[in-house]
Amino acid sequence: MTKAKVILEDKVRKDWIDYNGHMNDAEYVRVFSWGVDCFMKLIGIDEQLRDQQNYTIFTMESHVCYLDEMKLDEPFSVHLQLIDYDEKRAHVFYELFGEDGKRAATSEQMLMGVDQHTGRAAAFPEAVFAKVKQLADAHTPDEQPKEVGRVIGIRRKK
Question: How far apart are the C-alpha atoms of 94 and 8, rounded to whole Å?
Answer without folding.
Answer: 10
